[in-house]
Design a protein that fits this description.
- The protein has 400 residues and is α/β, with parallel strands linked by helices.
- The protein folds into four domains: 158 residues, MoaB/Mog-like domain (Molybdenum Cofactor Biosythetic Enzyme, Chain A); 49 residues, Alpha-Beta Complex (Molybdopterin biosynthesis moea protein, domain 2), CATH 3.90.105; 84 residues, Molybdopterin biosynthesis moeA protein, domain 3, CATH 2.170.190.11; 71 residues, Beta-clip.
- The protein is 18% helix and 28% strand.
- It contains seven helices and 26 strands.
- A hairpin with a 4-residue loop joins strand 20 and strand 21.
- Helix 3 packs parallel to helix 6 and helix 4 crosses helix 5.
- It is elongated, with a radius of gyration of 30 Å.
- The protein starts with a helix and ends with a strand.
Length: 400
């Protein structure tokens, strides 16, 4: 068996970036930049007031406070003001351009206005309550680097730089093919020995989270020729084919030979992790292929830790792996002597400590612990149990 780190390294080695496309800013959330976002203008574009008040020239104030200046003119947002008259103040509003000749703003709360004259008791410093052009970003600076995944904040920055659209990696196309004679679509008549197909919907949810376009293929039966045809069809027009079930070595585990007949070359099919040891990874001339085990927990865990980074890499994401949260075990826990375990658990706060309470039922088929977990605690292999308070890395589902 490959170690988790070696398996993930082999999976992500040589992954090509998907082609770029231009999308409107309104459709850019969660997309990955395919080129640097460069500031064409300084940000802000011009000196402007950070307060409602009065613009003046602090450098030319004579004598000692209190000061009295006549008010001449007004500057409001969206309108270029006239130059500041010598020895005067200009009424100004938040966001309005600073008049030529002014170098400071006195906020209106610090001013007494008497007709067309203002009085104030403290000498303002040059630059007071003024946002200078280029204060946030100079012209030509890189605002966001290629490979950045666009958050609401990134979209806000692009909008402030005047961009109506952005060049991003196209969305990866994912096809999910669930296999097994026992499977029926949710809502269908089950009969005495069938079970609802419960993997495609949560796997699609994770793939959507990574920015993918998802297609769910019809359920394929455990008949070699039918399964081979289903795989060949599923490989058309997709970047990543995800098969679910049948990748172990039992008499009815027929997916691996069917993948080979469909032209898929497998790189590896066993990883030293729990759950999810029987994981098949390969590629054809058309797509990357992940063969996941069929138990729900195994399928979701393996897709979260292998499939999600693959989708991120295809988009050129500069940070394809989730950043784990450090946490402490709320209770002692047995661990595997030879496999890295991804244990489902819930996060708790205890004062300044972040605790993870692992669910008792870590069975590969346990749906209840999937539904009530915040994510996965990484329990490193080793002798003996992990004690309460032991430090572990925790990957939240939302960060996968």
């Amino acid at each position: 068996m490959l170690s988790f780190d070696d398996a993930r390294l082999r999976l992500l080695s040589g992954v090509p970036r998907l082609s770029p496309e231009r999308v409107p800013l309104s459709d850019a959330a969660g997309r990955v930049l395919a080129e640097d976002l460069v500031a064409r203008d300084p940000l802000p574009r011009f000196d402007h007031s950070a307060m409602d008040g009065y613009a003046l020239s602090a450098a030319t104030l004579d004598g000692e406070p209190p000061f009295a200046l006549p008010v001449a003119g007004e500057s409001s947002a969206g309108r270029p003001p006239s130059p500041l008259a010598k020895g005067s103040a200009c009424r100004i509003f938040t966001g309005a351009p600073l008049p030529e000749g002014a170098d400071a703003v006195v906020m209106q709360e610090a001013v007494r206005r008497e007709g067309d004259t203002i009085c104030f008791d403290a000498r303002p410093a040059a630059g007071q309550h003024v946002r200078r052009a280029g204060e946030d970003m100079a012209r030509g600076a890189t605002a966001l680097a290629q490979g950045s995944r666009l958050s609401a904040g990134g979209i806000a920055l692009a909008a402030m730089l005047g961009r109506a659209d952005l060049v991003v990696a196209r969305r990866p196309r994912v096809t999910i093919l669930c296999t097994g004679d026992e499977l029926r679509r949710p809502g269908d008549d089950l009969g005495p020995a069938a079970i609802p197909e419960s993997n495609s919907a949560p796997l699609a949810a994770l793939a959507f989270q990574a920015g993918a376009i998802v297609r769910v293929a019809p359920i394929a039966r455990d008949e070699p020729d039918e399964l081979t045809r289903a795989i060949e069809s599923a490989l058309d027009g997709t970047d990543v084919l995800v098969t679910v079930g049948g990748v172990s070595v039992g008499d009815h585990d027929v997916v691996r030979p069917a993948l080979a007949r469909a032209g898929v070359t497998l790189d590896f099919w066993k990883v030293a992790i729990k759950p999810g040891k029987p994981l098949a990874v390969g590629a054809s001339s058309r797509a990357r292929v992940l063969g996941l085990p069929g138990n729900p927990a195994s399928a979701l865990v393996t897709f979260a830790v292998f499939g999600m980074p693959l989708l991120h890499m295809l988009q050129g994401d500069a940070s394809p792996h989730p950043v784990p949260v450090p946490a402490q075990l709320a209770a002692a826990r047995r661990r595997s002597p030879d496999r890295l375990e991804f244990a489902r658990g819930a996060l708790l706060r205890d004062g300044h400590r972040l605790l993870v309470r692992l669910h008792d039922n870590q069975s590969s088929g346990a749906a209840t612990s999937l539904a009530s977990s915040d994510g996965l605690a990484l329990l490193q292999a080793g002798p003996g149990p992990l004690e309460a308070g032991a430090q572990v890395d925790f990957v939240r589902w939302i960060d996968a």
